[in-house]
Amino acid sequence: MFKVFITNLGKYVEGKLIGKWLDLPCNNINEALKSIDVKPNSKYEEAFITDYENDWNYNVGEYENIYSLNELSKKLEKIQKEGSKEWLLAYCSALGENLQDAIENQEYQNSCFYQNEKTIDVTRELFNEWLNTIKDKELKKVIKWHFDYEEYAEEQLMDRYYDTEYGCIYI
Fold it and tell me: Are the C-beta atoms of 54 and 2 separated by less than 8 Å?
């Protein structure tokens, strides 16, 4: 979900709040602008954003380009349909990356994402997968007995693993 409240700047300066909620992506932004009396080459040719709502932790500036936001929301809609929303948000959270830059560069796709898991869970899962490749049962027991999941997870967090509110991501 991505919504912005667009407001007629000229009318706002005159003390009138003329605006409307716009669901993005929008097929015809020009029509939406006309509906709040924003028209090119007139006294009221500018709009600004007075409020917004989105599920992407994206902070919208009041003078952000509405057409650019519309393009961004199209990309976000596609990412959500692909099921990569949490992955992208985890990537941005871990690296402090700008949402738009992460989408453009698609760097997040070069990472491994474990949704709703912490590094300790991932460590345990990967270790147990490796442990299952060992045939000797006694050796398996000894290794498992001496392996410290918590310590290893702490080491992983220092080396390209990140715990985020969306899950664990390895970058």
Answer: yes
In sequence order, the 6+-apart residues with CB closer than 8 A to the CB of 148 are: none
From the centroid of its chain, how far is CA 119?
20
Q: Which of 10-13's residues contact partners 24+ apart within 8 Å by CB, and which partners? A: 10/43, 10/44, 10/45, 10/46, 11/36, 11/37, 11/44, 12/48, 12/50
164 DSSP β-pair partners: 167
- Per-residue tokens: 4: 């912005």
Q: Give the whole-angstrom CA distance, residue 11 versus residue 142.
A: 76
Helix axis angle for 119-131 and 137-146, nearest 10°, is 160
Within 10 Å of residue 4's Cβ, how many Cβ atoms? Answer: 28
DSSP state of 95: H
Q: How many helices (H) and strands (E) does the chain have?
A: 8, 6
Q: How far apart are CA 47 and CA 143, in angstroms?
A: 65
Going by C-alpha positions, the residue among 45, 21, 26 that lies closest to residue 34 is 45
Task: Give the chain's mean pLDDT.
Answer: 92
> Residues 45-73: pLDDT tens digits?
999 999 999 999 899 999 999 999 999 99
Q: What is the DSSP letter of 24?
A: S
